[in-house]
């Protein structure tokens, strides 16, 4: 297994540059493709070829786990929902299943810690460093198994999981709880105050913790560690990743702290309503494809953005160049 400090395999800047030049030469006004041109160039850089291959084989891997903080008033829903949503995902009836079915995306569910909740992160470490390390390795192994894909999406279910996500973002960026804590599944004002206090207590408890794997153990939990390993592993097998909501952005920050530069392999599928997701996007310099006000999780925002990414690749592959049009060979 690759050690946690391994550098990601190289992103091909020359292929990305060739793609940008190709975009500039298409039979479209300069800049007219907007961010779709940037996205196509990113795919070219990840694949190491211009024009990039179509993104035919796409999978969303949903990491599932329970969180002890949910019993402390940090979610609008009870932990029992997690196992029910895992069953719903497996029967293909979750929100992300519907989007994935519409867009030809496969969904895989990884039950990491459902029914085996993390410890409440404001009181004690969410899990041990040993368990966090094992979960990281499991996520990496999942990415290796999915290494034949053209694109991967990290999804999650787990009632309470926006609390560890906010805490990790706060810890890694040195931000206070009130700047990273959101309503999650729909807490009222009083609930957000309670959740913010939990996050701040966790941040205070872990002020001295700087190692990213220790942070995953202290504030994250096994499911978030597995997703982090998945993001690292996807870069190692050179598969680009479309990030989703707050949990995936928190794990992305951790992954980039473990292996700086891994962020080259990610684009942002959508902007969620969680403040921690937004500050993490800014930190990683990612501009989301969609901004649809979604706050479902499950990988749904990224899966909703897959058709746009496929369209970006099609534009680069199939649009005539201006030279062809001027030379009368534009079809
Ligand atoms: C029915 C239902 C389906 C979901 N699918 C995703 N989530 C999302 O909400 C949860 C995180 O929000 P919080 O931290 O506020 O609990 C996670 O399960 C996440 O995947 C759901 C939540 C519910 C209730
Ligand atoms: O940002 C998200 O992905 C999110 C927000 C609320 C609940 N679940 C997920």
TrEMBL record:
GO terms for molecular function: glycosyltransferase activity. Signal peptide: none annotated. It holds the Pfam family DBI_PRT. It is an enzyme of class 2 (transferase). Pathway: Nucleoside biosynthesis; alpha-ribazole biosynthesis; alpha-ribazole from 5,6-dimethylbenzimidazole: step 1/2. It catalyses: 5,6-dimethylbenzimidazole + nicotinate beta-D-ribonucleotide = alpha-ribazole 5'-phosphate + nicotinate + H(+). Its EC number is 2.4.2.21. CDD domains: DMB-PRT_CobT. InterPro entries: Nict_dMeBzImd_PRibTrfase, Nict_dMeBzImd_PRibTrfase_N, Nict_dMeBzImd_PRibTrfase_sf. Keywords: Cobalamin biosynthesis, Glycosyltransferase, Transferase. Belongs to the CobT family. PANTHER family: NICOTINATE-NUCLEOTIDE--DIMETHYLBENZIMIDAZOLE PHOSPHORIBOSYLTRANSFERASE. This is Nicotinate-nucleotide--dimethylbenzimidazole phosphoribosyltransferase. The gene is cobT.
